[in-house]
Write a structure and sequence with these properties.
single chain, binds zinc ion, globular, three-stranded mixed β-sheet, 34% strand, mainly beta
Length: 71
């Protein structure tokens, strides 16, 4: 099992950049595991789990029907 020190929500996919423990920006690839709805990635260097979440700022206005615009 992974030793997760923290969980962060990210809005970038499929790669999430973050400022890592060593002061440099590292990029973590997000993958969707079986049984999980959200893609996630893990940085072993700073032990942070990244959970992808779709941006929801224009949820009502920007209605796309059956979700044809997946990235
Ligand atoms: Zn990191």
């Amino acid at each position: 099992m992974e030793n997760v020190a923290a969980v962060r929500t990210v809005y970038d996919f499929p790669v999430a950049g973050h400022l890592c423990r060593d002061g440099a920006v590292h990029y973590v690839r997000l993958t969707r595991r079986s049984g999980q709805t959200q893609p996630q990635g893990f940085c072993p260097r700073c032990e942070v789990m990244f959970l992808y979440q779709k941006p929801q700022r224009s949820r009502v206005k920007h209605y796309d029907g059956a979700g044809a615009t997946h990235f």
